[in-house]
């Protein structure tokens, strides 16, 4: 009898602990459910419907027609090509630049705290403000052309040429985002035990060999994180492309990206269901590339 009562008491205690645990988790569950799960479910619903936004809102079920339309839409392929080109150039460049800056600041240079502040300023500056500044630099009467004219070189229409318009955005974002990843690398570098480098020196390894055989392997998980976050961020390029082209993706669709195409589908063409389908295409691409990255960097 005593054993039965003991089990019942233990069972009530476990239930009480479980309820307490769920109560502590409830705020997080509510936030995730409201701002993550419900929007995803709603996006799935929209992607399977044609939505009439003018007048009374109506939903017409079209199945997977929005997804099959993606294959036939030339704008989607142009946006994918531009976005892929942007990601392929910006992510490696900003990662390498961030690592170089972090190694430099970790090497004991003078006034390194001031250099950290100076390097990090572009990261805390508004993206819209940076874009407007670079538009002024790239303008036909801007700083860059003034400099070229001053040194006797021909000027150029940097914003109006489809061959270089996207590259101008790339250059701006490499310069403005690398300092953020520099801070991550710098924190990781400062956690590497000095004894490893001392052991490498005793074995006759020079600075470059220590960097290749000690620093790079230890930073592999950090590099995976930096590259993953960089890929996700670059695939979501929108504001710079929107401001550069005034929302058109021009010149000649040279700065059209996937997220800008989603914006145009919703706010210009009023195609909510089609925009949801494009968003799922973007999510699928990001997931696939992240899994590939994990295969090579994640160990």
Automatic annotation (TrEMBL):
Superkingdom as given in the UniProt entry: Bacteria
Main location: membrane
Domain ABC transmembrane type-1: 80-293
Transmembrane regions: 21-45, 86-105, 117-138, 164-188, 218-238, 274-292
Membrane topology reported for the UniProt record: Multi-pass membrane protein
Compartments in which it is found: Cell membrane
A GO biological process held by the record: transmembrane transport
Pfam families according to UniProt: BPD_transp_1
A single GO cellular-component term on record: plasma membrane
Alphabetical keyword list: Cell membrane, Membrane, Transmembrane, Transmembrane helix, Transport
Keyword Transport: yes
Family of this protein: Belongs to the binding-protein-dependent transport system permease family.
PANTHER family: ABC TRANSPORTER PERMEASE PROTEIN, INNER MEMBRANE ABC TRANSPORTER PERMEASE PROTEIN YCJO
Protein name: Sugar ABC transporter permease
Organism: Brasilonema sennae CENA114
């Amino acid at each position: 009898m005593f054993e039965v009562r003991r089990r019942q008491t233990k069972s009530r205690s476990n239930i009480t602990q479980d309820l307490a645990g769920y109560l502590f988790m409830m705020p997080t569950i509510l936030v995730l459910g409201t701002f993550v799960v419900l929007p995803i479910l709603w996006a799935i619903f929209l992607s399977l419907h044609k939505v009439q936004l003018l007048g009374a809102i109506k939903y017409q079920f079209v199945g997977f027609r929005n997804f099959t339309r993606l294959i036939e839409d030339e704008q989607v392929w142009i946006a994918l090509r531009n976005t892929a080109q942007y990601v392929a150039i910006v992510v490696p460049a900003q990662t390498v630049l961030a690592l170089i800056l972090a190694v430099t600041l970790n090497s004991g240079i003078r006034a390194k705290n001031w250099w950290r502040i100076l390097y990090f300023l572009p990261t805390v500056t508004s993206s819209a403000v940076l874009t407007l500044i670079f538009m002024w630099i790239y303008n036909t009467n801007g700083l860059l052309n003034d400099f070229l004219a001053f040194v006797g070189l021909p000027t150029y229409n940097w914003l109006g040429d489809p061959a270089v318009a996207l590259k101008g955005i790339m250059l701006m974002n490499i310069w403005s985002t690398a300092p953020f990843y520099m801070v991550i690398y710098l924190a990781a570098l400062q956690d590497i035990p000095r004894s490893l480098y001392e052991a490498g020196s005793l074995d006759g390894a020079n600075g470059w060999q220590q960097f290749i055989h000690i620093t790079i392997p230890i930073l592999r998980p950090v590099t995976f994180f930096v590259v993953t976050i960089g890929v996700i961020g670059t695939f979501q390029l929108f504001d710079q492309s929107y401001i550069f082209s005034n929302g058109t993706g021009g010149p000649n669709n040279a700065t059209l990206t996937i997220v800008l195409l989603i914006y145009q589908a919703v706010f210009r063409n009023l195609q909510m269901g089609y925009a949801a389908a494009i968003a799922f295409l973007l999510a699928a691409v990001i997931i696939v590339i992240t899994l590939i990255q994990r295969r090579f960097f994640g160990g």
